[in-house]
Amino acid sequence: MTGIDDVARAAGVSAATVSRALSGRGRLSDATRARVRAAAADLGYVVSAAASALATGRASNVGVVVPLLDRWFFANVLDGIASRLAPEGYDMTLYSMSDDRTQRDGVLDTSLRRGRVDGLIVLSVTLADDEVDRMLALELPVVGLSATTSRFPALRVDELAVARAATEHLLGLGHRRIAHIGAGYAGDPGLDIPSLRRHGFASAMADAGIPDAPFAAADFTIEGGHRAALALLERDDPPTAIFAASDEIAFGALFAARDRGLDVPGDLSVVGVDGHEMGDFFGLTTVAQFPHEQGERAADAVLAAIDGREELGDLAFRLVERTSTSAPVEDSLR
Question: Cα-flanking dihedrals φ and ψ of residue 61, to 5°?
Fold first, then answer.
């Protein structure tokens, strides 16, 4: 079995130099580092995680706390995180925080206390105050991504601006009967993403002289969007446009329009949020949030925090206009 001494001989350096070159720590010339890494690759040598942790005090592993593992958005964020961590020699461990209290306690009081990670990324998880206390008590660098607590340093999208961009797009096309489909209030209304999107919608409508615009609650799924949109379209004064709080909700609204025999966008305009990879296929106008890039930024931020630096800032978004939105048709049949 190839060992560090074999790599040292092949590269013509000491074992200590090999250790520094492969850990990425310590001052070495680029040429020496490259020579050592090339020798290690040729010999198939991989640094033992346990040995590296003993030598450096680091596990070369980042924990990611996630609420769900089966959502397109989170999957893309995780892929972005992994794509940044791997070249730096870091692994990624996922900790799923469900709604089950026993499971959550197991993550906070057992899994995260095993000392297997150097830092944490907390991805859109709503945490109770005592849960935040226990996470901070780990004394690990923590970076939130769209975190629902202000007690973590975090990367955030301006969700109020996102909702206003979507709503003002519909208003600018001439729509006045605009409805919003989103989740109910949860957590801190100043940080909770569904709450911020609903508030941004309401404020944009109020600024346009349209208070009390209709709202329908739904979970962030196609099924939820379909049910909520059908309910809105059955009203005596159905909307001519829907702002959905996610692209998956918006897909459901598009299916509801189809089921009612409505033309999109002639009878109903729909705009979503996220930038789902299927959005182009459905012709969905959306406010893209670039989840893969969000994951990359989160990984960069936690690696910086592990090294004692801060690398935060705002996250990008952009309105992408497609064929699901247009000016309202006055004589549309409903």
Answer: -150, 135
Question: What is the Cα 170 distance to its own chain's centre?
Answer: 25
Q: Can you tell me the distance from the alpha carbon of 119 to that of 127, in angstroms, rounded to the nearest whole number?
A: 18
**Closest Cα to residue 166, out of 275, 315, 266, 292?**
275
d(CA 119, CA 310): 13
Strand partners, 273: 287
What is the model's pTM?
0.81
103-134: b or e for each residue (b if 16 or more CB lie within 10 Å)? ebeebbeeebeeeebbbbbbbbbbbeeebbeb
Spell out where the chain has E strands.
61-66, 91-96, 119-123, 142-145, 154-155, 178-182, 215-217, 241-244, 269-274, 285-288, 318-320
Q: Is the dihedral of CA 327, 318, 64, 41 positive or negative?
A: positive
Task: Look at residue 144 and give its three-state secondary structure.
Answer: strand
CA–CA separation, 188 and 183 (whole Å): 14
Of 50, 57, 63, 152, nearest in space to 113 by CA: 63
**Per-residue CA distances from 19 to 76, 214, 229, 259 (Å):** 33, 62, 59, 64
Strands (E), 247-324: 269-274, 285-288, 318-320
pLDDT 10s digits, 147-187: 778 888 999 999 999 999 999 999 999 999 999 999 865 55
User: Do 294 and 66 meet the contact criterion of CB atoms below 8 Å apart?
Assistant: no
Q: How far apart are CA 152 and CA 93, in angstroms?
A: 19
pLDDT tens-digit map of 41-96: 887 776 655 455 444 456 789 999 998 777 788 999 999 999 999 988 899 999 98
Q: What span, in angstroms and rounded, lies between the C-alpha atoms of 300 and 304?
A: 6
Identify which of 237, 225, 252, 227 has the alpha carbon closest to the alpha carbon of residue 178. Answer: 237
Q: Return the structure tokens found at 288.
A: 């893209």
Distance of alpha carbon 243 from alpha carbon 95, whole angstroms: 32
